[in-house]
Amino acid sequence: MFKQLITITVLSIGIIIAANYAQEAVLLLVRSHDWVSELLMSVFSGGEAGSIARGLIALLSVPIFIGLVPSLIYWALKRSWFPYFMEIVWVVWLVQVGALIVLNKTI
Questions:
Q1: Which residues of the chain have pLDDT under 50?
Q2: Exposure of 81 by Cβ count < 10 A (0-12 exposed, 13-18 middle, 19+ buried)?
Q3: Residue 22 counted as domain residue
């Protein structure tokens, strides 16, 4: 437990120091989601089913793409699957959903 307390303290200090960069990263994540959503508007109909499909694809595509970047680099170097792919996808997805909810955007 002491180790986790030190870890969260060090990470909190790091976020305080780099808050501007963290804010820019979250805004870039939200803008990426908006861009994918706008791109998919021409593909899906304006009805309820089309809106749900567009929102689902937009919500899932950005974290999966971000998770694929280190996975492909790892695969190119080690020729094996990146062991933390789904953890990265989950963390990015949670940050993205949290930012979208805080900004009161429709997912």
A1: none
A2: exposed
A3: no
> Does any domain span residue 18?
no
**Whole-model pTM over 0.85:** no
Residue 3 Cα to chain centre, angstroms: 27
> What is the distance between the alpha carbons of residues 66 and 40, in angstroms, rounded to a whole number?
19
Helix/strand/coil percentages in the chain, nearest 5: 80, 0, 20
Do 40 and 54 contact (CB within 8 A), yes or no? yes
Residue 8 falls within a domain, yes or no?
A: no
Question: For 59-89, how does the pLDDT look when each residue is reduced to its tens digit (9 = 90+)?
Answer: 999 999 999 999 999 999 999 888 999 999 9
